[in-house]
User: Fold these one by one.
Assistant:
Number 1:
Amino acid sequence: MPLAAPEFIRPAIRAMQGYQPGEQPQGQSSVIKLNTNESPYPPSPKVFEAINYVLTGDRLRKYPDPVGWEFRRAASKVLNVPAECIVIGNGSDEILSMAVRTLVPEGGVIVAPTPSYILYQSLAQIQGARFHELPFEKDWSLDANKLQGIGHLTFIPNPNSPTGTFIEPENLVNWPTPLVLDEAYVEFGEKNGLSLVQEHPHILVSRTFSKAYALAGIRFGFAVAHPSVAEQFYKVKDSYNCDVLSLAAATAAITDQAYLQEMKNKIIATRAVLSSALVELGFKVTPSHTNFVWCQHPDQFEKKIYEELKARNILVRYFHYANWGNGLRISVGTDAQIAQLLDELRMILKR
Ligand SMILES: Cc1ncc(COP(=O)(O)O)c(C=O)c1O
């Protein structure tokens, strides 16, 4: 039973449920974890070197660089954007939260597509803002005309979660509200929205190190924004939001693009195997631009499949969206993990 919230808690917080992240089983190494889109591979060896360097020096005693210049200079070279445009965050979730605090007044409106990342709704509730859902069109595009002028901020995950679909960034240039392109999974696709930021100050890009860079445990993300916008974000963020270890890890990881490419290629190859095997098992699979696959079964209950997999120590994510439907989001694991998942699915579905 949840405790009754004291009266002095803000009504908006009392009323909300709170975001429920995907399960993180503790101490059960036998679990095959395909539920929160972490990388199945370790981060670049350069990350371990960088962390060791920090640990053996005198860096833990002192505060980190509050604005992360070393990381920003490294990212600037790799991404070909000025370092002034980059804002560091404690995971990209913090970047999303900064965007809300910087752009959305209390009583304002936050827009996001359905189905998409559930955290956006929680961020709206925390801010005391209204959440407006904009359903995807049948071809996974979005029709901005349907907003009819409302909204102080729109979040578009691109590629989207949980569907893995992608919208050409050029098609979003004239979006009628400030727009955060949440590019948490962009490294697994072909294109991104970075080139839009310089010329369109109302467009921001958010990136994470939790997926392709295999650093979910370190908590690091960043925004790329027009310098006039980035400057405002720096007023809003916590003073020392990124610690010395995460800054060192992220700087080393972004510098090692060859390793990133190698891991990306492996994951994309396994994604193709997983997708076609799921089709053979009767699932409807949406073509993915990410490190996960979204699938729906026309004549089986996805929730039951999720539960049966869980009983066999395999975690995937089950989503149910009111007015939209159910499905399973399966992160791409190693080849061996995916082979085991498919064996279990064949038994569950008796194929
Ligand atoms: C669309 C999307 N955005 C942001 C995040 C958060 O990433 P981070 O670990 O950087 O906070 C996730 C994590 O699953 C995600 O799916």
Note: The pocket of pyridoxal-5'-phosphate is lined by residues 37, 91-93, 117, 157, 161, 182, 184, 208, 210, 216, 221 (CB under 6 Å).
Number 2:
Amino acid sequence: MSEIVRIDLAERSYDIHVAPGLLARAGKLISQEVTGPVPLVTDENVAGLYLDQLMTTLKGERIDARPIVLPPGEATKSFPGLERLVGAILRTGADRGSVVVALGGGVIGDVAGLAAALVKRGMGYVQIPTTLLAQVDSSVGGKTAINTTEGKNLVGLFHQPKLVVVDTDLLRTLPRRDLLSGYAEVVKYGVMGDATFFDGLEQSGIKALSGEGNGMATAVVHSCRIKAAIVTRDEREFGERALLNLGHTFGHALEAATGFSDRLLHGEAVAIGLALALALSVKLGLCPREDLLRVLRHLRAVGLPGSIDEISGKRPSADEIIRHMKHDKKTRGGRMTFILVRRIGEAFQAYDVEENLVRELLTD
Ligand SMILES: NC(=O)c1ccc[n+]([C@@H]2O[C@H](COP(=O)([O-])OP(=O)(O)OC[C@H]3O[C@@H](n4cnc5c(N)ncnc54)[C@H](O)[C@@H]3O)[C@@H](O)[C@H]2O)c1
Ligand SMILES: [Zn+2]
């Protein structure tokens, strides 16, 4: 199975290639984008697993790749991390004919994409996402960012990659918790905009997660298609792209309230955020309760959390969560924006939700 999803953005258009085993053939795809030396950015964990394989296929195409191996973890997505990376890219002798290759999860993709956007006023880059989250979400759509002490992803640029190479076999080495965390984004796509896709996940999501058959590759392709369609219509998030933040207003606040720590991975926060967005929709009388229950059942069936009580340690208070929500970069004029759901497969933006209702929901 090999699929191509096109992101249609005039001169910034590119293809996402998805296939099991694709890493071994990545050299050929990348060779079409490069003339100079290639800074190859990855993290220590991913380097140990996949760097040799990528170097071999690049060498096979006579590509002069220069590995830059960064420490794994969010701390790499920071000004100090970016400064070190930009220096390392410049020292490879990269010119504007070079492309930066990002081999890793969302952390590597985000910081390498931002570095590529900045060096020499903009180099091309190629994403080779190695986590499920990166394959279905962060490698697609051109958002790049680092974190600052003021918050996550607050400094960044839109910079579309030239190519995305997705090898779903790489997910086999991903820790179960990271795999599930990425799966929360897959569920999000169904709840947001495709009821039939959600039905399919209910039926075969568990099997796909177990790595049996090509269920995971199919889910990745479908998720990329949903995101591609939205990014094509609204690249810079003036409107519709905000729907992709379903579950994220609550999710980001929960991540902030738990200190962006191992207590709660991004996708786990999104899973709880999805449940809360549906619960808020039900509370407002906008969505049938059965839809909330279905989503909760599926999250629990695969092993994802669906409520704040499932977070280990001290329960974040409603006030704390609301304070963080008001801080979100999607906030405009101090009002919290929510993505709500009319039914599974139909999300919409709401600007006028009363804070009291949200407080009640978070206290229940
Ligand atoms: N740009 C966007 O649109 C966008 C969207 C969503 C999330 N993000 C960002 O993505 C980041 C999270 O990404 P992530 O969840 O991929 O985390 P990550 O990049 O930190 O990867 C998670 C862990 O898995 C390891 N790993 C990666 N691939 C592996 C593999 N195949 N086998 C074994 N281990 C592997 C990594 O070394 C790391 O320890 C966050 O910083 C978030 O803000 C960006
Ligand atoms: Zn997300």
Note: The first strand starts at residue 3 and ends at 7.
